[in-house]
Amino acid sequence: MRPIVHDSNAAHESTSFISGWKEKLKADPYRSYLYSYPHKTAYRQLEPALPLADLWAKEPAETYFLYMHIPFCGARCGFCNLFTLPDGRTSVHEQYIDALERQANQLAPIVGGKPFARFALGGGTPTLLAPNQLERLFLIAQEVMGLDPEQASISVETSPDTVTAERLDILSKYRVDRVSMGIQSFVEAEANAVYRPQKPAEVERALQLLETYHFPVLNLDLIYGLPGQTVDSWLYSVDRALAYAPQELFIYPLYTREHTIVKPGDVTRSGEDIRLTCYEAARERLLAAGYVQYSMRRFAKPDAGGSKQLLPYGCQEEGMVGLGCGARSYTHAVHYASPYGVSRRATASIISDYVHAEDHTVAEYGYVLSEAEQSRRYVLKGILHREGLDLAAYRERFAAEALEVHGELKLLLQTGLAELQQGVYRLTDEGLAYSDAIGDWLISPEVRERMEAYELR
User: Fold this and answer.
1) 3-state secondary structure of 9
2) How confident is the model at residue 10 (pLDDT cuts 50, 70, 90)?
3) CATH architecture of 43-300
4) pTM of this prediction?
5) Could you give the 3-state DSSP secondary structure of residue 122?
6) 10-38+370-450: which CATH architecture?
7) How much is the average pLDDT of 12-17?
8) How is 309-364 classified by DSSP, letter by letter?
9) What is the mean pLDDT of the segment spanning 429-443?
10) Residue 48: is the preceding peptide bond cis (ω within 30°)?
């Protein structure tokens, strides 16, 4: 479906227009998952390449987020379009970590001087690495990049088949606060339908082992709208997850995209798209279990967290330092990364280029944000989470009024999809349910044009 065109003056339209606009938006709730803005498909070759020393010298963020991307997994799931390559060879992993360490040594002097408030290992599956290789990543973070594990929140992604005592010992040793495990479904037929090679018994084994380590936050990921799934089978997975009392649960609607094995018709194979019904049923179940909703996807216990005295870090997520092929880095004015690919051939080629690169001191591929796009990003990152958009903070940063610069926000207020309380603009419960449609609607015409022109390899 083509995006609904937004107009900054739409708030002045008639009641019938407002009602019709809302119904049109609600008719197509799952358009795209805007987990970052601008989207990576808006990135292009930067001409000329930008010296990283210049970019980071101008970065106003007081603390940084260190992210390492490990682009390897055991198998590509049918819904996955992330930058990841199914490759379990230890020798390939070793070459990659050597390259990551080389990149870290070049980047550390450039970003040094400000502490890291967060550190995350993502992928792919970082715990696919051999234990000694996994430990190397923590040593690079601490000894090369200067991470202090006592003042930073540390998160690691894993999968059931890679959860072993030896690996969890390493995570515990290096003060990991949060372990996030993708389960997607406890029903074997549903996992098989999206080419996810896991058995329910393997999931339960991994969860039972994780329980014995008492990490401050255990997060579990589930997906609704899987081929063959029903609302009842979806709630069965939710209940199985709740049986382990995780501090966080992320619930994701199934998306199908270019180069994924699962196709759009698989979502509605039964003739009905049940995703919104599944979302509403899970939300009710999770709230009744004492979880707090922080976004369309994230539900957490109110006391989720550890005992560390963490440094502050803003939800707008600037000052993100990315290491590894596929990792994105965010400064306030420039976002950059390696090129993006999904097919095995493209991904393998991009990883090979990274492994053999000698110089990691310039940004060659990314997006330069104008003041208008910086403002739009700030708004989007605020309103798509329960914390909302602090209008005074926006005014201080951009010397303008958010509701005047982004008149679309007034329309969300008039439709009841958003509310304004004590100077904070946030989506209502109804608005959160339609976050993906709202986020897509708020993409600027310039960024959308670049996204639509992108040729995915």
Assistant:
1) coil
2) very low
3) Alpha-Beta Horseshoe (3.80)
4) 0.93
5) strand
6) Orthogonal Bundle (1.10)
7) 73
8) -PPP--TT--SEEEESTT--EE-SSEEE-S----SHHHHHHHHHHHHH----SEEE
9) 97
10) yes
